[in-house]
Amino acid sequence: MLHEFVTANREEIIARCRAKIAMRPVPCPTDLELQYGVPLFLDQLADTLRLALGPNSAISDSGAKHGSELLGRGFTIAQVVHDYGGICQTITELADEKSAVLTLREFKLLNLCLDDAIAGAVTEYGRLREHEGTERLGRLSHELRNLLNTSLLAFDVLKTGSVGVGGSTGAVLARSLGGLRNLLDRELAEVRLGAGILHRETVVVADFIEDVEVAATLDANVRGLQFSVTSITRDVTVYADRQILTSVLANLLQNAFKFTRSGTRVSLRVQATNDRVRIDVEDKCGGLPVEQIDKLFHPFEQKSADRTGLGLGLDICQRGARANDGEIHVVNQSGSGCIFTVELPRQSAMALHSVSDRRV
To answer: Residue 232: helix, strand or coil by DSSP?
Structure first.
C-alpha cells in the first residue's frame, strides 16, 4: 500500500526532498524547513494517507491539525504548498524508479490527500493568522492608549507651571513620547517586512550609527543609564534597507535600556572585517536562563516582569536582519548580561564603485 511504501522509504524521500528544497529560489529555504519541516511534512502526509485508507476518513481534520502545528512552528503558506508538493513529486519519482506496484487508485489518493492536506492546513493557518492579527491589534491599541494617557497626564501637570520640564514629570513625558515613537516605528517595520517591501541602498555604517546614537542617547539619559558607542571608519558600507536596519538596531537598544539594571551601562560597538560588519549591543540585564534563549526571537515572547511592549521587537529584529542578508544571534553572559549581535555582509569596494557609476 502507498502509505507503507512511504514509511519504508522515509529516509530516502526526506533526503531527496531536502535536495529539492535547497535548490528552490522562492520562497527561500530555511534551516528549520530543511531539518525539521521535511520530516514533519512527510510524516503528516503518511498519516493522512493511512487515515484515508482506513474505515473512517479524517483527511480534513488531519489537515486542520497540521495547519495549526505548522503555524506554531513558523512556516509560511508558501512553504506549506511548496513542500507538500515537493514531497508528492518525490514519492511519485521514487515509486517509478523502484518499479513499485502502486495502483491508479493509490496515485489518485495521493493527489487527493495532497489537495486536502494543503486545503486544511491553509484554512486553519488563515484562521489562526486572523486571530493572531486581532490579538496583536488589541495589544497595540492597549499600549498606545497607555502611553498616550501617560503623556497627556504629564503634559497637564507641566501646564500648571508648578514643575519644570527638566524634572521627573518632564522625564515621564519624554519616555512616553519615545515609547509612542518606538511602537509606530516597529509597526511600520512589521508592515514592510510582512509585505516584502524593501528599499535597499548603500548605507555608510558610521553615519547610520550616528543617527541611531542621537535617539538612543536621549533614551538612556531618561532612564538614568550610561551609554557608550564605538563606531568605525566611514569607508565601511552595507547594502541594506536603511529604515528596516534602523528598526532592527533601535529595537535591540530599546530592549537593552528596558532590561539593563539601573546605574549600569549599555554598549554599542561596531567592527568590520573584509567581508562582514558586526554590530554588538551589550546590556547588563543580569543574564537569562539557558532554556529561554531559544525562544527570545519568537513573536509575543517576553522574558521580563516588565510587560510593556508587544513582545514583537526581537522577532522583527531577526526578520529585518535576514531581509538584509544578515543574521542576528545572542551570547548570554550569566550574572552579567547579554550581547546581541547583528552581522551583515560588507559591501565591497568594487560593488560600491559599480553603484556610484550607475548613479552618475
So the answer is: coil
Q: Quickly tell me which residue has 508587544 as its cell.
A: 310
Q: Which set of grid coordinates corresponds to residue 13?
A: 524521500
Q: How far apart are the first and last CA of the chain?
A: 66
Chain segment 300-343, per-residue pLDDT in tens: 444 444 434 434 468 788 888 988 999 999 998 888 999 999 99
Whole-prediction pTM value? Answer: 0.54
Ramachandran bin of 263, using left for φ above 0, alpha for ψ from -120 to 50, beta for the remaining angles: left
- Give the residue from 287, 282, 251, 246 showing the smallest Cα distance to 266: 282
* Angle at 297 (CA atoms; ends 292, 301), nearest 5 degrees: 65
Residues 214 and 232: their CA atoms lie apart, in Å, by 16
What are the Cα distances from residue 281, in Å, to 55, 157, 213, 266, 270? 58, 36, 12, 7, 9
Short-list 235, 236, 225, 229, CA closest to 210 = 229
- Cα 124 to the chain's mean position, in Å? 21
Question: Based on C-alpha coordinates, what's the Rg of the chain?
Answer: 25
Burial 161-174 (b: 16+ CB within 10 A, else e): eeeeeeeebbbbbb
Mean pLDDT of the chain: 77
Domains and CATH numbers, the chain: 2-132 (1.10.490.20), 198-359 (3.30.565.10)
Q: Grid coordinates 546581541 are at which residue?
A: 340
Q: List strand residue ranges (DSSP E) for the chain, in order.
A: 200-204, 226-230, 237-241, 265-272, 276-282, 327-333, 337-345
**Residues contacting 2, CB < 8 A, separation 6+:** 49, 53, 102, 106, 107, 109, 110
**CA–CA separation, 101 and 107 (whole Å):** 11
Residue 72 contacts residue 40 (beta carbons within 8 Å):
no
Nearest C-alpha neighbor of 87 from the set 118, 62, 119: 118
Per-residue pLDDT tens digits for 76-119: 767 777 777 788 888 888 988 988 877 777 777 777 777 776 77
Angle between helices 104-159 and 59-72 (to 10 degrees): 40
Please state, in angstroms and rounded to a whole number, the distance separating the CA atoms of residues 9 and 1.
12
